[in-house]
Amino acid sequence: MDTPSFLKRIIRLVIRPDEQARAQRMARHMIDLCHALLSERGEVSGAALARETLIAYHSLPEPALPALFDLLSSEFSPDPIELARACQEYCAQPSTDTLISLFELAEPPRQELFRRLNTAPGGTTTLVGMRALLLRSLQAHPQWKGIDADLEHLFGSWFNRGFLSLQRIDWNTPAIILEKLIKYEAVHEISGWRDLHRRLEDDRRCFAFFHPALPNEPLIFIEVALTKGISDAVQPLLNLDSPVTDPQTADTAIFYSITNCQRGLRGISFGNLLIKQVAQELGREFSKISTFATLSPVPGFRTWLAGIPEELAATAAGRAAAEAFKCLDDPDWFKQKHTAERVQKHLMPLCACYLIHAKNKDEPADSVARFHLGNGARLERLNWLADTSKRGMQRAAGLMVNYQYRLDDVADNHEVYVKEHRVVASTALRKLARECPLSLPDKR
Amino acid sequence: MDTPSFLKRIIRLVIRPDEQARAQRMARHMIDLCHALLSERGEVSGAALARETLIAYHSLPEPALPALFDLLSSEFSPDPIELARACQEYCAQPSTDTLISLFELAEPPRQELFRRLNTAPGGTTTLVGMRALLLRSLQAHPQWKGIDADLEHLFGSWFNRGFLSLQRIDWNTPAIILEKLIKYEAVHEISGWRDLHRRLEDDRRCFAFFHPALPNEPLIFIEVALTKGISDAVQPLLNLDSPVTDPQTADTAIFYSITNCQRGLRGISFGNLLIKQVAQELGREFSKISTFATLSPVPGFRTWLAGIPEELAATAAGRAAAEAFKCLDDPDWFKQKHTAERVQKHLMPLCACYLIHAKNKDEPADSVARFHLGNGARLERLNWLADTSKRGMQRAAGLMVNYQYRLDDVADNHEVYVKEHRVVASTALRKLARECPLSLPDKR
Amino acid sequence: MDTPSFLKRIIRLVIRPDEQARAQRMARHMIDLCHALLSERGEVSGAALARETLIAYHSLPEPALPALFDLLSSEFSPDPIELARACQEYCAQPSTDTLISLFELAEPPRQELFRRLNTAPGGTTTLVGMRALLLRSLQAHPQWKGIDADLEHLFGSWFNRGFLSLQRIDWNTPAIILEKLIKYEAVHEISGWRDLHRRLEDDRRCFAFFHPALPNEPLIFIEVALTKGISDAVQPLLNLDSPVTDPQTADTAIFYSITNCQRGLRGISFGNLLIKQVAQELGREFSKISTFATLSPVPGFRTWLAGIPEELAATAAGRAAAEAFKCLDDPDWFKQKHTAERVQKHLMPLCACYLIHAKNKDEPADSVARFHLGNGARLERLNWLADTSKRGMQRAAGLMVNYQYRLDDVADNHEVYVKEHRVVASTALRKLARECPLSLPDKR
Amino acid sequence: MDTPSFLKRIIRLVIRPDEQARAQRMARHMIDLCHALLSERGEVSGAALARETLIAYHSLPEPALPALFDLLSSEFSPDPIELARACQEYCAQPSTDTLISLFELAEPPRQELFRRLNTAPGGTTTLVGMRALLLRSLQAHPQWKGIDADLEHLFGSWFNRGFLSLQRIDWNTPAIILEKLIKYEAVHEISGWRDLHRRLEDDRRCFAFFHPALPNEPLIFIEVALTKGISDAVQPLLNLDSPVTDPQTADTAIFYSITNCQRGLRGISFGNLLIKQVAQELGREFSKISTFATLSPVPGFRTWLAGIPEELAATAAGRAAAEAFKCLDDPDWFKQKHTAERVQKHLMPLCACYLIHAKNKDEPADSVARFHLGNGARLERLNWLADTSKRGMQRAAGLMVNYQYRLDDVADNHEVYVKEHRVVASTALRKLARECPLSLPDKR
After folding, report:
1. How many angstroms separate the first and last alpha carbons of chain A?
2. pLDDT per residue over D47-85, tens digit each?
3. CA torsion sign, B111 to B116 to B119 to B125?
4. Backbone phi, then psi, for B120, in 5-degree steps?
5. Which class for D199: exposed (0-12), middle (13-18), buried (19 or more C-beta within 10 A)?
6. Do C174 and B172 touch (CB under 8 A)?
């Protein structure tokens, strides 16, 4: 995505007063253009004025950004007096007419501003990029929340699934798109074009969602391996030199990486749909493939584990486990067979317990678990030494998990999850969790 | 656009009670699906449930439609109690948080329902078609206004100009699109494929706006003739047997027909942008073309004329005119040279006066004038016997008018028009209007 | 295909001497350009000179054509002295070297001329069009045979099946291609766009071969009806108002029309491949379709019948038949049930006999039979009153025949046909033929 | 291009007798399929048999190749007796008929075999690959010359320029094509994707010719830099980190690399056309660009120089030059300013002399000079230390040359070159050559 030029320069820590003044002036200029764009004249001059405003935005120096957001926040909100009157009229008589009027006045003029900015070439890209910048600073500047709410509302409408197209990514795809995969991949880094090429061979599949207004920008993409049986380790899937197998012999599709590409689209979810649509697509192409499962990280496991020393100390079994885990700081602990087996014995039940019982409010503590369980998958299997990369060892001592998508059960699972906060897991995993030495209050 | 099957059958006048009950049941069933689609489960089952709901809609018998709209109206509006509370909170403290909350609650759940329906294949087409049906009956059923407001709001966002693509239509265009032009053309009827082919030859141009979700459906299209000088009559342009001229010799582009294709998109205006974008496109392709003008009907002229007998009777000149106009009921009046000249002398000033001075509230009485003047064009020239088709004679006694688009003046003209309701017209036309026998109060 | 302008004008019968001289001069000029194009300079100036030569060709007046062909014939043949020397060298010592040299010298320079003409835009189209003109006059001008041989040789190489693409034609196809179908259709005339549209509905299929150098010109196209059972009459298939059936319920594909579009490609056969490739394509799309058959005219039947009065007179059965056929001159004979039945009884065996036994040298007398039997089809069934159009009645008294393509038997059938001149026919048809009153010498 | 599997294995030096026998059998099998394909049955079974034959070819082990070529050579040549008879008939009476018959019989049946092989998917690719293999061994096996002559004749017809399309290559091009550029680039090696990306930025252009039957295989490609003035050194053009300049400011297009991609198409020249078509394309896009020149290596210079010690020794100036050149074996000689200047003084005139006067028979001794002069370019300027890569220093002591293409002079230059073997060079270069100490016989 295009980013204002300031992001391409090194950010200086100290801003001189004259620079500050210049930045203010430029932000003011851009805001004046925004007002013009919202005026009558803006309506007819249309795309030309929108283009000019976008250019002004892209020329802003970095220090102008907070000023811009402050002005966007303060000058494009509804008129409080008019809106208050509409509120009173609605409360006095809640009719279709008063409601329509209330809704219209409650919509910040910013939304219309953004709709008009969108008419210029590159408008959508710019707005998505603007929200990405906004989100970076939102916690520090809660007063900008209104801008974010407006962008999110518009994006939710514009990026409706009905407007997205699912496209297969392969070696026939233009380089301008492929380089984005290399850049965006968030789960298992792509080391370069050779690595990418291996992930696009005959026994792999890659799909992405695109929006017509962002033709070279994947919104989200998923990487799939076509295998025999459910994979229990990720390194073999990522191995550049692994032989390419005949996809017609596969019975399983392993989703081993899902990446949201556009930070500016946070909260506009596509992942749920993508997995199911890809599963259908693969089912059509390969009649033998009947199992759809992920091979997923357990990103929060070791952090959680580090937070329960007292719980472990409470039982003999827990203490034995804690003793066994001392070796985990040695980066090579898993290479010694004996040590590894000892750790495995204690770690697997704890991880099963973590995935099934550890909660953040009502939801699973693990972010990846939240995503897949929320989509209607079920926890299928825990895999020992499944990701021995540095990151995999640090986050989950090498453990990975399979979430299985049974298309017939997805809606039921989702409903159970949402209504009762119940985690759907395989019998084997439930059994494993019961071996855990902890006595968590919500352990069943 | 797809239309529910009932539109394809003959509408029966009397509906039997059992049919009525069945229609009610089917509308209820469709509404139940809508509720399911808005539920949690709807979120995850996604497109499948949306598809089912669309199928239910398309199977509705005609008598079910009023019931459906009634239910859509009553069951998907905001909760008045919650919304009233949000109103009070906002009025008590108009902050970003209370505003966001108010806006969210003021948005009817119907909008989210429509967004979810849109995720199914054909969703956009169905919703646009549904609004077309709704608009037919809105005057008789003002209680459905809320549904219309929601659809218009969504369409305004979805059909943002930034998402539209301008496409040239020519003989290389797929037949499935070309047949739509024949069907939709609203200004000068296309009599068949041969007529269409003549309008797509080298000395003609046709452009349309398309939306990615409606790939075979033009939203609006414009027909252009590339000519030497500004055309003063439309029959030569429409003549199937006219020789094709070399477009490189043209100095003028005449927009002789603009058609909005989708009744369901009423109020979502593209015409303004289309004319300007086409003018730019043609300017790029043909460096010699510097004049962009329409050849437009004056649809309201004779109706207006029929309404001012007393004003005419007030002056001698007016009475002479009224006397001359008596022949207008003879369909062949214009074929007699002497009669025609007499009519022309009296009619031209009155038509100039009509275009410049006749008002409907603050705006021009003539609908075509409203459109082009609102877009920043100026009234250029009145053309005698310019459209001698039956319809052209009936509506405007054969008169047509050129509106000229000077790209440099368009924004100024528009502003003057909107702010001061001033009609921008050529000196010649103003002079002609001054010869008119009426003394209208707003005559300047 | 583009044709020189003279074809668009009415051909005048008398050419004045000065016109004749001008035509000669223009032909000479074009030939001079051809010589330049073949020279060294032509090699490097390349496409520019080729383009100039094409323009000269397209500006030729009609009377210049014979002069042009004469010059093309005489001035671009091999040098007889050099070629004779190469002949002698080859005969003296038939080696690779003498053969290569002989082949090179035996190739008329015309072939290289045509290859160079082909480098200009529109070259292929022009050359195909030139051969179409040449073929019209070849019988009267046998001295031009060498030009034809060269063009046929080149086209055989250029239009190799490996370079052709099979494309489905439907309502999404550009109008510029669809209008060619209307124009070219040779078997069952297409009466206009509505007729065409019906032939492209869901229960019909149309496929064509295209060459990359002629993107908007089908080389050959085939029309297919998807039916239940083998069709026994063509009027129901052509009926504009017939209801569209669900293609998924079909078990048979009826090829009811095959048209070669380019007269200039005569002798370069694609039909054989087209039928088989379309059968495969349909087999893939519709798993239920297992029967592939034509519904074909019997164009030579009544002409043949008119030529055998004596053979008929030789037997009592023959005389009875001849008596019955007297009614055939009444255009409405088939509408009277009794008459029709009497004709049917006598006519069917004779037609079966005609198809199986009537020969032109070793091959079937009927041209359509020659085509399909040569492709490996078998004669399946004779259909009574299957084509009651004027043309159908005139040519075959309404009879049509199904040729069936069984993909497994096609190669065997073809071989039997080519080697032994044996006609492969169904038992029923053979039996019918045996009822025929004639005692043809080759009747088995 | 696909290559038979044996090329992917390591070639073993000793072939055991049983392997030899197996290879013979497999070659025989493939040849039997070829005979079948040429038979009547082959005509109708068409693509299926051709596909089978291709598969047999691709399964051949390496040792089968010579046997295959021997059989292709001996069993698919014309029948010498029939051909001799046709020779005699032609000599006796050289008419159109006897010529047509002679040409037909002189064409080896191999050509028809190759045309039929081409009907299978991948046929063209296979045949081009087969010729690449053949060319490797042709010198050692002159008896295979007939096969090569047939393939070259066919390719000359199939790859006619009229069938090629010029395509721009940029970052939007599919990766499957881009990786071919990296692989094929023969002039200035592309070190990887980053290098490639720099060569496709805004101030660079890349174009390739494609044939419809080889959609992902460039036949030839050209790399262009858009510059101010004629470049005098190649390293700045290849520098990955050079800033991208605005192409609108360029006045010159430098062709810095031209690569023929398909060895199997040797002798089928496209380069001439490509340069001129690209020059036209760039002239259209950038109205300011008026100079088209290459920056080319002088590949044969140092080899030539090493071969003339006696000529140098013949004059005092020559001896001084020879003395100066002693340092050339030191790879860093050019880094010392004094040494470099001394070498330059002596080397530049000799190189000018080499380019203008050194001959191989009648043509320039330098292969790159032959190509560009033959295309109508002129020798423009010699550039000192223009290619300081290892290869550039080894082949030409760092010298490079600009050949300029003036579109108006190209045809004249070419003609002068072909007819009189005259080298067209700038005044400056001619003057430089006159300073050379040699007295070559053809020095003017």
Report:
1. 47
2. 788 999 999 999 999 899 999 999 999 999 999 999 999
3. negative
4. -80, 155
5. buried
6. yes
Instruction: Please confirm, yes or no, whether A372 is among the known catalytic residues.
Output: yes
CB D158 within 8 A of CB C157: yes
For residue range A8-26, what is the model confidence (pLDDT) as tens digits? 443 444 567 788 899 999 9
State yes or no: is C372 an active-site residue. Answer: yes
Specify the 3-state DSSP secondary structure of C369. Answer: helix
What pLDDT digit, counting tens, does each position of A98-148 carry?
999 999 999 999 999 999 999 999 999 999 999 999 999 999 999 999 999
Tell me the per-residue pLDDT of D154-196, one tens digit each, with 9 for 90 and over: 999 999 999 999 999 999 999 999 999 999 998 899 999 999 9
Is the pair C, A in contact (3+ CB pairs within 8 Å)? no
Distance CA D362, CA D106 (A): 33
Average pLDDT over residues D394-398: 95
Rounded to the nearest angstrom, the gap between the alpha carbon of residue A127 and the centroid of all alpha carbons in its chain is: 18
| Whether the predicted pLDDT of C13 surpasses 70 | no
Mean pLDDT over D23-40 rounds to 92
pLDDT in tens, B322-343: 999 999 989 899 999 999 999 9
- Shortest alpha-carbon distance between residue B23 and chain C (Å): 28
Find the helix packing angle between B123-137 and B64-75, rounded to 10°.
100
User: Of residues A211, A346, A357, A372, which has the active-site annotation?
Assistant: A372
Q: Which two tokens stand for residue C393?
A: 């009645």
Asked if the Cβ–Cβ distance from A172 to D172 is below 8 Å, we say no
- pLDDT > 60? residue B9: no
Just list the catalytic residues of D: 296, 372
Whether D415 sits inside 8 A of C41 (CB atoms) is yes
CA distance D218 to D297: 23
DSSP state string for C182-247: HHH--SS---SHHHHHHHTSTTEEEEEEE-TTSTT--SEEEEEEEESS----SHHHH-TTSPPPPG
Burial of residue C29 (number of CB atoms within 10 Å: 0-12, 13-18, 19+): middle
d(CA B199, CA B177): 15
Looking at chain A, which subunits does it touch, using at least 3 CB pairs closer than 8 Å as the criterion?
A: B, D
Q: How far apart are CA B86 and CA A205, in angstroms?
A: 49
pLDDT of B41 above 70: no
Residue D90 near chain C (CB below 8 Å): yes
How many CA atoms lie within 13 Å of C24's alpha carbon, on the beta-carbon side?
Answer: 7
User: 3-state DSSP call for residue C315?
Assistant: coil
B and A: touch, per 3+ CB pairs < 8 A?
yes
Using the Cβ of B168 and the Cβ atoms of chain C, whether some distance falls under 8 Å is answered with no
Non-local (6+) Cβ contacts of B421 within 8 A are B359, B362, B363
Strands B291-294 and C378-383 come out as: unpaired
Instruction: Identify the bridge partners of residue C241 per DSSP, sorted by sequence position.
Output: none
- Assign B46 a pLDDT band (cuts: 50, 70, 90): low
Q: What is the pLDDT of residue D417?
A: 87
Long-range contacts, C199-203 (Cβ 8 Å, 24+): C199/C223, C200/C169, C200/C170, C200/C171, C201/C244, C202/C244, C202/C245, C202/C246, C202/C247, C203/C227, C203/C244, C203/C245, C203/C246, C203/C247, C203/C250
Question: Considering only CA atoms, which of B292, B276, B390 is closest in space to residue B332?
Answer: B390
DSSP A162: G
C39-48, C295-304, D209-218: which range is least confident on average?
Answer: C39-48
Nearest to A178 among D175, D192, D216 (CB): D175
Tell me the pLDDT tens digit for each residue of A187-214.
899 999 999 999 999 999 999 999 999 9
Count CB neighbours of D313 within 10 A.
11
Tokens 């036994």 correspond to: C357
Rounded Cα–Cα distance for residues C7 and C58 (Å)? 10
Number of Cβ within a 10 Å radius of residue C155: 22
